[in-house]
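Entry type: protein chain
Record version: 2
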Amino acid sequence: MSSEEIWGPERTGGQGLDPEQEESGNRALLALLDDPEVRDQVDLVLTCRGDTYEVWSRRGLLRFQRWRSDGRQTFRIVEQLGENPLERTNPDAVASLEEECRAAERSGYPTPDPNFAFIEPSELSYPFALERIAQLFDSPYTGDLVISPKCYAFGLQLGQHGALDVLQSRAPLAFIGPGVLPGHYAVPARHVDIAPTICHIMGFPLIDGRDWSGLRASERGVKPDVYLERQDGRVLQEILDPSASRKPERVYLIVFDGLSHSELVHLWASRDPAVRNLRRLLDSSAWFSFGSVVNFPSITWPSHSTILTGAWCGHHDIVNPTYYDRARREPLAPQAQGMLTEGFLGSAVEPLYEAFRRVLGTNILTVSIHEPQSRGAHHAALEQRVLGPRDRLRAYTAEFVEHIDPRYQADGKESVYREAVLDARGLAQLLALLDDPALPPPAFVAHEFALTDGAGHEYGPHGTGLRAAVAETDRRLGVVLDVLERKGLLRSTLFVVTADHGMAPQRVELRANPARHPERIGMRTITGEPMIWLKDLAIRVERAPDGRTARVFVFDNDPDPSGELRPVEGAEVRVTAGADRLIAELQTNAAGLAGFAIPPDRTANEIGLVVRHPDYNPRHLLLSGRSLAPSVRQRLFGTSE
C-alpha cells in the first residue's frame, strides 16, 4: 500500500514566517523586491509559512510543498504567479568559461574575459533547488527570510559566492583510486553524496541511521540502508568499478576552497602547467562533467560540514557563517570565530572522522588539515589538537613559507598572503604527521587548501592572481603526492577532489548588499547575510462581552528556551475608530498588558490598533485581530491575496 504525507519543516523553532509576522514579512519582501534601491540586485527571497515553502522574485512567485511518498522525497507546486523563478534546474548550465561569456553577452554584459562575465538569472539554472530550500528550513536556526542575490550583486570583492544559482553552487568533483571506474560522468551529483560514496567504496556496513526524512531505517520499516548517522545523499553508483579486486586502505579528501569548476576544467583541458600535479590525479579520475551541487547557502562553514557529514546544513545546523539562536537571543558566528567551532555541529549527524573510527577502530589516525569541520579528528589544528613532532613542524613551516608567491604582498593582498601562510602551515602539519614513526599512516585525511578561495575573492574567479594561487596550491599537492608515493601509500589511497562552493564575478561598483536593506530602512532585524531574522511582536486582543472595554497582550514573538513567550513592557498602543478618532494612547505593563475603553457602537473591524516598541517591528491590526499588512502580491503582480 502506498503512503503519502506532507513533510514540512523538521524541527520548528521560529524559522520562516508565522501569522504574527505577516506585516513585517510583507514589508521586508517589498523592501527587497520593490524598492528601486535594491530590487535590481535581488534574485530570490525565500521563506516558509507552515508546511509551504515560498520563492519570491520580481518575475514570479512559487509556492511548493515537500512530500514523503513511499519513503521518497517529492515536491509539489501549490501556487505559481507569473514566471516560475526556479523553472530551470539543469546542472549543465554555463559549465565552461566560453558558456559563461556567452551567457554574459545575452545578459547585456558582453566581454571576452570570464572574470567580468556578469550573468542575469534568465541565463542561469538552480539545480536541486526545491530540495536545497526545503532542507534549509528544517533547522530552527534558519532565518525568517533568506536572500539569494543576483549572481553578480554582492560586496566589494571581485569574486563571491553564497547564492542558489548554478554558478555559485557548482564545485568540481572527482574520485580517484581503488574501487573507482575512471571516465567522465554527465550525471547529477550533490555534495551530500560524497560522504556515503566514500563509505561505500571503503566497504563500511549499512546502519540503522536516518535518511533525508530524519527517520531511522527501523522507524521506516526497512533494513539498515545508510552509512552515516544522518545521510541525505546517495552512493554515486555510476562511478563504481564492478571488477575492483580491492578496496582502498585510506582516503585523502582534497578541498580546493572556492575553486570554480569551469576554471579547473579550463586549466586541465588546456594542460596548463598550473595544474601539473593535479593532472596526476584527474587524468585517471571518475570526473563529474558538470561538477557537484553544493549546500545552500553556498558558503564555507556550512558547505564543509555538508561534505564531511553527508547532510545538508538544515540537518547539521551550521546554517550560515553567522546565524541566530532565537530562544537564547544569541548570535552565533562559527566562520568569524574560525577556531574551536566543531561544537556548533548538531549532535544528530556523524562526520567522516567519527564514521572511520566507528568502523575501523579507535587505533586508526584521522586528520583534519585546517578543515572547517573537524569533529572526531585526532589531529585538528583549528581545534587545538596537534600531533606530530614539533621540531619537524617548525622546520617544514619555515621552508614552505619561503616559497609563497611574492605577488600577493606586492599587490597589497594581505588577506591572500595570510591564506598562503595558512596553507604552508597545513602542508607542514601533514608532512610532520607522515614523518612520525610513532603514528600509523592516516586512514582519513580531509585537507583544506584555503588559498584558492582568498585569491578568487580578491582577484576574481578567473583572474591571473587566482591562477597563480592555483599553481602554488598545485605545488603543495605535488609535495603530498611525492611523499605518499615514496612511502608506498599512493596506489592504495582513494582520493576525492572537490571544492566547497563555486565563485562568480561581481559588479563591485554596485557595492551591493541587499540583505541589509530592511535594516537600513529602519526595520528591526538581525542580519547575517544572506539571512534575516525579524524582531517581531506577538499580539493577542480581547474584547469584553459587553463591548465596552478591550485589552491587548504584547509578547516577544520568539519563545524563550522553555517555549514561553515573554511579555513586552512599555509597548505603545494607539487605538483609533476610523481615520481621525483617537480612542486611547497607552503603554503595556510588566505583564505586556494594556486595557482600554472602546465605543460600543463600533464593531471590532472598525477599531484599529497600532502597537510600537523601539526594539521590534510595529504592528497594525484591527481589534478583530485581522492584520493590516501591505499586499506583496498586489504590489508585485497586481493580484489580490
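Comment: Residues 198 and 251 are 8 Å apart (CA to CA).
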